[in-house]
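We give the entry.
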Amino acid sequence: MTRNLFYFIFLILISSIVACEPENQNIHKQGLVVDSGMVVSAHPDASQIGVQILEKNGNAIDASVAVGFALAVCYPNAGNIGGGGFMLIRFNDGQGTSLDFRETAPSKANKNMFLDKDSNVIEDMSLYTHHASGVPGTVDGLIKAHQKFGKLSFNEVIQPAIDLAHNGFHVTKIQAEGLNNLQQIFLTLNNDSTAFVKKDAWKEGDLLKQPQLAATLERIKENGRDGFYKGQTAKLIVAEMQRSGGLINYDDLANYESKWRKPIVGDYKKKYRIISMPPPSSGGIALVQLLKIVEKHPLSVWEWHSHKQIH
């Protein structure tokens, strides 16, 4: 590698962040100060895996890829290999790059696909049907990032997620509540049994094992990108699409490609340089615009949460 990776901001789809100390994955703290590195994610088990990768002398990309695959197991709410996301990287020389692995529309998609013959929106069709599925980008993105910047072997960074899926993880209180609330949807949308439904109600601390996901991750480990976008996994995805009228086909999967993009760069009060994600993410543009709007105001002088500061 010609440049060392200084830090990363990973997967914009993760909405909540926890920080975990290596010696105790159940301790959640805010305001931690560390002297060498930190891993943050939406689930303590995934964060712990990231820490372990760093302790094995992996770099930030190794850790982020390992965390990304781990979140597919222990944070199915959002961190999943059936979706997509963004990766923003800043190097220690101040430069940055970004990877767009957002989902794409299937080749058979069209602008009227959620409308009836009278051009009225078909209720819930864009939410709860196979038509709403985009071509997944996460696997391609994580593999592409690791191939370009990773230090450890791919087997080393994906194996912890496989172990987590095979051995199971303990669901949090919020996850137990979410699984219980969504049980009827799981039963309605799945014609086979699913790991997310069990006979009794889920409760905090229950062990959730996902053997089918472990097998999928194993295929990715053995065959790389082709272990997901081709072969057995692709057959399973296309079969599921055909079962319920979805649009994703073999060519959509085989042709998916994540893209390296130039980040959005701005400044705040001529003191801080902001590097953020470009379109198709809206985050970078919105962030820089908001900072430019407020930089002329004396926010530090105004009372905290005063009407002036809030406006």
About this structure: The first strand starts at residue 5 and ends at 10. The radius of gyration is 21 Å.
